């Protein structure tokens, strides 16, 4: 016998009352490019772009998607242990990533491959972690791009602290902290909002609301649109069309300037969609409908910009062919680079545990080496 | 029930039985509803017991743990799922400062019948934070009980016993063994906190728990080919520890080797070695040895085999123990 009790039905908004449910996009969404590729204006977020800039953004989007697709297939071929695809979120990441100045600093989750691209982090470096050869293979200070953070929400506090340091230094840099709709529930994220607000820290919280935290819809995390959370903490919140690269660029540029000018933090909610599985270990058919994913296809961030370039005659066939060729080349480089990525020496375990010598670690390293040498050929495993 | 089940399925059945037997039992965790948890341990339970009893929580471990404590205060029996070992730390404050101490602070007037299920340990080729063995942190905290099964039978019955316990139990699930199958018997056979001799022997005692029990059984099989008869004890409970069973075994064999995935330094093995040395001093032919992880963060998966104790490393320790 199973004891079943009725789940209380969730209340729908009454007629005539604005629908505040978390998953509903309209009407506050900032958009500069419609899904059909038409340019529209927003009074608060003007943006002027040259044809060259638009082409460059298009190139970013295509290359980032190509890299992502390559990584997904490398995982399927057993070359990577895991991959967290950004499919569908390219515009949110490229738009915000390109809004940064060189001195600005980004704190990513584990999915910000598009932001990494904008920060000039070699895609192969991102793959080391997913292959299992390191826990994050780049120098964060070199690219002003922090290591990926897997523990949900932790990095928002690091970003805030870093921003507090910028203020103390009297510098005019700004920080951007990436996180997901799921992460918005974490204590750390809410504490980051508090610290950023209280210390007026130059940090932009960039939430990619991709509608899902693994199997849980955004409505499991919040009953008001996420961007409105900001007002309770005392700073502005904006919801932007996360599949519109121009709107993401304009809103983030505004927010970073707002922050760097001493006005304190901003929360941006980029309303977007995770087109693929949560990671390659996930099976989304267990919890969401194919129709939902299909509906979002019509809002594809790349097709939208392509439509705009076509309509306005801003790019010719030669340009698209060139981007295509470049993307083939990137795919090949990534494929070959991963396949030839060597396994680390096991003694890596003992490297960098501390920055200064530590007797126990040194002892264990020596013990391990002696043990390994006792095997034929001197190698264990 | 008596059936061949994987550990995952045995746990699933245990949760189902617990939900059936006590209407106050509720499950809480991330993705435990429609998805059935990332390891499918709660598969089908929300469908059968409803969203009020199998609760997909917001993504916030401190929130999950803190509200579970509140539900327990209100007479519920929460079973919390932490998605992976490395994600229990946001809940650690609630576990250590509140859950563990509530009963004592209330002079016994309040009970905390909460089970915290955590898939733990390495060996699955995962990224950072998905392979940790943190049993020592919990065992070091008075007020918490810490158990970990190594096979399907124990997985099933120990989980049911944990849920029935009026104390908070940290229930560590050896994730790399989830798909190992075994017979699940009609009754538990042992009280929750007792160790179990899983292979009798005379020359040395291997003491292990969770994922390392299988490794030690393999070691014993290989050692037998060399004419060594090793006894293997499955600890099952890390707090409390069934020292009577360990003492009896080690006094007989004269040698003890503790094996765990967690770092050796300040690990559970240190406690066992110290106590067995006191209790069995005049019977020991060799110091109690320990085999485990190094004093380093759990490494990237391509070198995790070096970090994890395996057949060779345990055999090496057996050689060392026998050489004394
Ligand atoms: C503290 C913590 N708890 C749980 C997890 C497991 N986990 C990894 S990703 C994820 C969902 C994250 O959702 P969201 O924040 O919306 O970001 P998205 O993956 O959708 O980009 C969960 C629960 C984790 N990594 N860290």
From TrEMBL, chain B:
Domain of life per record: Bacteria
InterPro entries recorded: THDP-binding, Transketo_C/PFOR_II, Transketolase-like_Pyr-bd, Transketolase_C
Residue intervals passing through the bilayer: none
Gene3D superfamilies, sorted: 3.40.50.920, 3.40.50.970
Pfam assignment, any one: Transket_pyr
SUPFAM superfamilies xref list: Thiamin diphosphate-binding fold (THDP-binding), TK C-terminal domain-like
GO molecular function: magnesium ion binding; oxidoreductase activity
Cofactors that this protein relies on: thiamine diphosphate
Key words, A-Z: Oxidoreductase, Thiamine pyrophosphate
Domain Transketolase-like pyrimidine-binding per the UniProt entry, residue ranges: 5-180
EC number(s) from the headed UniProt entry: 1.2.4.-
Protein name (database record): Alpha-ketoacid dehydrogenase subunit beta
Lineage of producing organism: Bacteria, Bacillati, Actinomycetota, Actinomycetes, Kitasatosporales
